[in-house]
Amino acid sequence: MPSSEVGTPPAYYAARPGAWRDWWTLLHPPYTAWHLSYAVIGAALAPRVLTSSLIATVLAFFLAVGLAAHALDELRGRPLRTAIPSAVLVAVVAVGLLGALVLGVAGVIRVGWTLIPFMVAGPVLVIAYNAELFGGLMHTDFGFAAGWGAFPVLTAYTAQTGTLALAPVLAAAGAFALSAAQRRLSTPARNIRRRAQRVEGTITFGDGRTEPITADALLQPLERALRAASWAIMLLAAALAVARLT
Fold first, then answer.
1. pLDDT, tens digit, for every residue of 162-180?
2. N or C, which end of the chain is more exposed by having fewer CB within 10 Å?
3. What is the rounded distance in angstroms from the CA atom of residue 228 to the CA atom of residue 206?
4. pLDDT of residue 7
5. What spatial distance separates the first Cα and last Cα of the chain, rounded to whole Å?
6. Are the CB atoms for 232 and 37 separated by under 8 Å?
7. CB atoms within 10 A of CB 91
8. Could you tell me which residues come within 8 angstroms of residue 12 by beta carbon, excluding any fewer than 6 positions away?
């Protein structure tokens, strides 16, 4: 039966191992940009958009998600196969979460106590999800969609206005659905890249034609969809930011 050995990089965006390239891989660039875009979308829905608050919110999510969450994930079994020392990863987790908290406190000072639940929930979500606490209760499709999709939209809007409204709630529901779709695509792709040792089989069509099943054949539709979706969300967020800030 046709077969293929699986020896692919740990992610489609992963760079060759070594030096700064490990940091590029650790950041999960398309996924980090995807979820930072939700923060931009949430802020752009506010009646009045404050540039300083938008920048602070995006920076806080970059520190918490782009750095701390991904460093914490890499500490658990080295799924990205980087050579970044564990002590450095621990420091990145601490600095990332502390930096996000400092920015959260600044936001509370500006908009009031309504931002406090979001400021507290952020680090809890990062640690509970990526460290798989509580028996992995948060490490699910639902937990990912809520924490990485809906949460940035609601937080960013609240950081602008000090309150919530129907529009950001609807946008958060949309971000939840998109993030759930993202995880449904990325999970099988990740399993093939990081866990599968061998892929084998064939597809037989009604006209008698056969096509081998390979790792690339399984990965391409999943990862092409992920690439397209990440660019779509980033461009939508950029369009909203340009429309509101110019």
1. 999 999 999 999 999 999 9
2. C
3. 31
4. 56
5. 59
6. no
7. 12
8. 189, 193, 219, 223, 226, 227
